[in-house]
Structures are given as structure tokens and as C-alpha cells.
Amino acid sequence: MEIQNTTNQNDASVDINKKKVLVIDDDENLTSVLVDKLNFSGFDADFSNDSESGLKKAIETKPDAILLDVKMPNMSGWEVLEKLRVDTWGETAKVIMLTSIDQAESVAHAMEEGSTVFIVKTNYTLDQVVGKVKEVLRVK
Amino acid sequence: MSVKIKHLSISLLIIVIFTVPLYFATPYLINIFLNPQKYIKLGNFFVNYSVSDFQIQILSVSFYTLIVLIGYIVYLLATVSTRAQLLSDYQNKDLLVAKYGLEELYANAPIPYLTINSDGEICGCNKSALRFFGVLPEEILSKNFFAYASEEDVELGKKFFDFYKSDVPISKKEIRIRVKDGEIKWVSLSIFLTKDAFTQDKSGLVTVFDISDQKQLDQAKTEFVSLASHQLRTPLATIKWYSEMLNSNQLGKLNEKQKEYIDKVYLVNTGMIDLVEILLNVSRIEIGTLKIEKQPVNVSEIIDSILVELASQIDKKKIMFKKDYNSTSTIIDSDPRLLRIVIQNLITNAIKYNKDGGSVTVSLEKGFGIGQSSVIISDTGLGIPKEDQDRIFSKLFRARNVKDVGSSQSTGLGLYLVKSVVQALGGSISFKSEENVGSTFTLGL
């Protein structure tokens, strides 16, 4: 069987070197479990439940990867990404878009804004999300 | 007939009016001119003559006959000219009636009509068009029609103008039009080209069918699906991740019962996610918001990514999975998202309705034309009972042997969705199945 197995049972032991990950999502419950999972997996995870303060935090703390929710009140994930790309550091920041909507146009939008990584929350297990972050950061 | 009688009577009247007095007057006239002196003056000579009564009568009759003949010729001429006149009158009348009817139809039709000249300038419009634009005729005549495209659709307006200039007819194209007070309306635009029979000048008959209400409704439907999609899926994703976290033992080891419970939460939640997914897709199809965006698609890549997602289910049921394809020769023109929905549903079914340790085979056959490629998914599962096979793609239908397996696992929507999406993609779906042996679904692309 040639099925790719993204499950990693030894998350904590891998060489992640405390890479900083910032989660920006307005859903507190979802953020909480995601941050816990990332921390358990060896990342140094932080979060923001508001798009504006999330953007500020991103530019200030310069995380290695940002998990950014698309649908947020006040400022959408796309707007955050757009503003981030104007910043000298943010221009090359690694951003993974989180969404609950599996729409072709969303994927197209993500690519346009320079984020080729796109996670549909319901389709991914936490392990798969962690796997994706590792893939983006090229860590084992 | 009545016209004939009329003309005949007029002619007879002419004959009577002229001939009767003449008939009676003729002998007297002849007498007056010829008879008094019974001689004719020829120079300095008078020639005597005598006219008998008989001769007078002959002359009278000849004269009378001449008059009747003239009358008859008058009648003939009258009827011939009248017939020609009548015929042309009739033709003109038909034309007039038709012209009037068309003009009325044009003027009062509920659809806005405009006529434009070869430069795209409006040279006529009906009442409906005036109402639509909210203007008086003088405010719209001689303006360029294509300049009414709204700010958002300026480029599209220019494109349609180019079409028009190049004699390309425009049929039911959607565009936003700016009407009075800056209001924007969605219209379905058609332009039929016509040429003047004499001058060969080009003109266009424009119809602008207001579809703003329809667009609003579509927008509302799309927003509903999008909202429902977000509002339903976010809590489901949350439950999924929390139960996964609990189950991972990273927060401490669970006892057997706790593990069993959290497994159930996870399982039921996964079923719920699938159900929401399928319901949203079915509603997208039914309200017509399922957009098809075809592009070159690598089918084997799609299958591989589905298998990654289904890995845990495959492992759990210890399914022998056989991939009978290579990844290089399977590029087809399709919508990747929709194709994924179809293949995912078929593979999920092949796993879901399989026995533990059963096998699933996915193979790809690449053809040369449209509809020539196929994805074949075979399983060694429950199979579809013969008597249920003709209804298997019906909405909410579940085969009888599936009902026994577990109602929470089957929605009766999966294959309905598959069929609908395949139809939307212009492909085909067929199957062969035997109960307790297995099923083979062939997807033609």
C-alpha cells in the first residue's frame, strides 16, 4: 500500500528547535486546541483571536510560520495577508491559510496572495496540520 | 362582389345619363344642324341635299351605339384601374396592419428594446427601455449604448462593442448597466444585427432583460450556502480536533471506557462532517451555484490526495488497496474540485461498504478524446441488490443491504451527488454489481 502516512507519533522528539508559530483565528476554541497541539509537537506557538492585533503581533514577533484564518470579523485573512506582504519581513513570511470553505476561488486567491498552502479545517486532522507546518518550515 | 356591382351601376348610370338625353336629342340635333334649309354652304355654293327620316334614325342608332360603347369602355377602364387600386390597397392595408402591430408590440413590449446604429449610438427605444433607464427619449437618443456599462463592467462593455463592430451577435450575455441616478442593474444582453435592405447600413436590435432580482436571489442563495458552510463546519472542526487531542494521549492516558467514548465522539463527528459536506454540495447543485471551472487536471494526483485523507479508514478496515495507474499520463480537462468530490465519494463508498480485510482497486484508463478517459473503482464489498440497482442514483435512496449495516453511515445522497456532479461535468457514470461479491463503478471523463 502506497498511502502517505502523515501521522507522527513522536512529535515532541523531532528537531523543531522551538520554531515560532503564530495562529490568527477568531474562534477561541479552535485556536486553543491548535496552539496546544503545536506546543506539544515542539513548536513555540502563540495566538491571536483578532485579525488586527494578530497582524501587529506577527510583524512584532516575526514568527517562522503563521496559521491564518480566512473568515474573521473586521479584517479578513486575505486583508491581513495583503497588509503583511507590504511589510519588509512579512513579504517573505510563511503563511498557511486556514479555512472552513473548500472553494476553488479561495485556493486561487491564496495563490494570488503568495500563499500556496491552504488548509480546509474539517478535512485535516491536527496531526496533518502539524505535518503541513513542518513541511512549510522544512523541519522533520 | 359588391364592388363589382357598384362599378357596374356607376358605368350604367354614366351610360344612361349621357345616352338617354342624347338618344332623344339626336334627331333634333341632326335636324337643327342639317335640316332647316336642307342645303350645305360650300364656299359660294349651296348644295342641296335631303335626309330621309330613316337615315336620321340610322344615324341616331349609330350615335347611341357609340355612346354605349364609350360607356362600356369607361366601365372596363374603371374596373381595371379599381381592381389594381383595390389590390394594392389590400396589400398596403395588410402591410399597414402588420406594421402597426409590430410598432405597438415594439413600443409596449415589457422587455426593453433599443435600436442602435453602426456606431453603437441609440437611435430608437421602446417605453420599457425608457422606464428601465429612467430617462426621457431625448436623454438617451444618440448616446452610445455600450457606454452604459457600469464601472465594474467597462471592459466587458468595450468587448461587446468590439463584437458588435465585428458583426458578432451577442446572445444572453450578463453585464451590469448603469441607469439613472447611478443605479446598477444586472441585465441579460442580446444584440441582433440587421442590415437596411436599400442602404446596407448596419443596425442592431438590443434587448436588455433585467435580471437584477434573479441575481440578488442567486447572491442570497450563495451567501446562505457559504454562511451555512462556515457556521456548520467550524464547530465540527473544533470537535474533531479536541477529540483527536484527547485521543492522542498527549494530555495523559485515557482509560478504556474514556477512549471508547472519545472514539465514538470522533466517529460521529466525522460522519457529521461528511454529511454537512454532502448536504452543502447537494444544495449547491440544486440552487445552481455549483460553478464549473475546467482546467488540465492530473487525475492520479487527485486520487493520491484522497487516499491520504482516507488513510485512517483504510487502515482501520484493513483494506487491501490497489492502485492500477501511473501518474504521468492522466491529465484531463475537468474541474479539479468537482472531480475530487466524485472520486472521493466513490472511493469512500468502496471502503465504507466493504468487509474488513476486503480489497479496493482504482484504475485509470486514458483515452484520446473527451469522455474517453475513465476511472474504475472496484470493491469486494456488499454489492447492490439487483432489485435496487435502477434506483441507486436516486436522491435519499439507500439499498436494502446498506440499511442493515448502519443508518448513520449512509445518507442516501452520495451517489445522487456523484451522478449530479458527473452530469454537470459532462461525463458519465455506470456500474456493475453483485450482492455480496462487490461493485465496480466506471467514471467516464
Written overview of the protein:
The complex is a heterodimer of chains A (140) and B (445). Chain A has 5 helices and 5 strands. In chain A, helix 1 links the parallel strand 1 (20-24) and strand 2 (44-48). By secondary structure, chain A is of the alpha/beta class. The model of chain A is unreliable at 1-14 (pLDDT under 50). Chain A has one domain: 3-Layer(aba) Sandwich (Rossmann fold), CATH 3.40.50. In chain B, helix 6 packs antiparallel against helix 7 (256-286), helix 7 runs parallel beside helix 12 and helix 8 (299-309) packs across helix 10. Chain B has 4 domains: 2-106; 110-210, Beta-Lactamase (2-Layer Sandwich); 213-290, Helix Hairpins; 291-445, Heat Shock Protein 90, CATH 3.30.565.10. In chain B, the strands form 4 sheets. In chain B, strands 4-3-7-6-5 form a 5-stranded antiparallel beta sheet, sandwiched between helices. A 5-stranded mixed beta sheet of chain B has the order 9-11-12-14-13, covered by helices on one side. The longest helix of chain B has 56 residues, at 53-108. Chain B is built from 12 helices and 14 strands. Chain B has helices at 2-34, 53-108, 127-133, 137-140, 154-165, 212-247, 256-286, 299-309, 311-316, 336-352, 400-405, 414-425, and strands at 39-42, 45-48, 113-117, 122-125, 170-178, 184-195, 202-210, 295-298, 320-324, 331-334, 359-365, 374-379, 428-434, 438-444. At the A-B interface, helix 1 of A face helix 6, helix 7, helix 8, helix 9 and strand 9 of B.
